[in-house]
Input
Amino acid sequence: MLFHDWLKNDSKIILFDGAMGTEIFKRGIEPGKIPDILNIEKPDIISEIHKSYYDAGSDMCQICTFGSSSLNLKKYKLEDQIEEINKKALENLKKVCSPNCLIVGDIGPSGEFRPPVGNITIEQWQASFANQVKILENGVDLWHIETFSDIEEMKTAIKVVREASKKPIIASMTYKKTPRGYFTIMGDSLEKCIQILEQEKVDVIGANCTIGSNDMIGLIEESVKLTNNPLSAKPNAGQPKIDENGRPYYEYPDKAFAKDILDMINLGAKIVGGCCGTSPETIKEIRKIIDSL
Amino acid sequence: MSQEKFYEEISDAIVNLHEDKAIELANKAIGKNLNILNVIEEGFGAGIRRVGELWDAGEFFLPELMRGAKIMQDCLDLLIPHLQGGIERKTLGKVVIATIEGDIHSIGKTIVATMLRAYGFEVYDLGADVPAEKIIEEAIEKNVDIIGVSALLTTTMLGQKKVVEILKKRGISNKFKVILGGAPVTSKWVEECGADGYAGNAVEAVELAKSLLHI
Output
């Protein structure tokens, strides 16, 4: 399979895509909606964004299903549309996917926490992810389980995907930088997460969101000391600001972001891309750097 | 045992998240007929403040913060009915708090509510996805001092501004202090909205609420 070939090829750096949300708002969509519903309401916009990432040089893009698990959709009273949203999301990406590029199934966290923070049970997590994975399995090339802050929820999602699919898994936790190092808000250290993800035998261990690219360099530096697994990094473009129209924007320059990504590649990152605030322009800058290696 | 030592033991029970121990000490304070107000402030209050400091320092995370605040709340529920001589634990102030309409992220808001309660504020938590108008109606009805509005998404932050605008339009902005929170919120955004303050985390939120009410 292509993805495994890429992983085995030492000279290949895999370029992931950038942000979906910020791109949606640039196109004048009113804030306040879950982006996933736009797969049905504005499929052309979603496809256009995916295409702009492939055109910018992404080797693989993820479908717009970050919030399309049952528990998440339920909060927006959209749980009845889980099948339609996920299927349309696949279609929207499939029709613009370039040859020799891959389609990644995106699984975001449920947004619900275990006690003492929340009241969710592992069984509820399982059921929620299982509904989504079942719909997407026939269509995606690999999985990106991302932006998780509880390693137990990550383990649950991995288990669910494994039960339904033999496709590769990238498992990305989201960390904040503390005076004692990188931790998730649930208190899982980078070391603990990497150890567990190794035990779970995921194909790629990743980190995304929360921190900007400058802090992500340090995280990758720590990670290579802890594992020989391939690593993925999808940092934010700094922190968001709000313009006079109330729309979010990010000031971190694309060239500086791409330079940070180069540092991560030199440290050993195998898959690189962007999270909140990154755009096709960012991906173009990274493409230039990768092609010059 | 000296009183200071007893307070310290209480504070340690909170910081070590020993629920049984904390409850046992609360009952002991009641049995011994100690000054309950002092027990709350110097024992339990000191403990929860240390929990807050550990959170700031990156030693404690969400589970510890929530557990600490829950233990504190359980002990307060036990102690408050025993406040002596009709002295009531004066609430520091009343707060209505909510995550704004369109945003279902409630965890940050819940932490702030829990910490404010633990420190002695009377808190009305309206939950998540609450329209600006509804927040204001509740604020008026409960006669609160502070309105706290949370937004995790850059896309829902506009709702925070709406709260301030409606208050202005209705000519009642001087009745409430409006504080904002959420990952994308900055002091610049607070200024732009015309709100009264911003806090980066739950501990700062408590300090902010206190300073706005000159406590």
Q: What stands out?
A: The two ends of chain A are 24 Å apart (CA to CA).
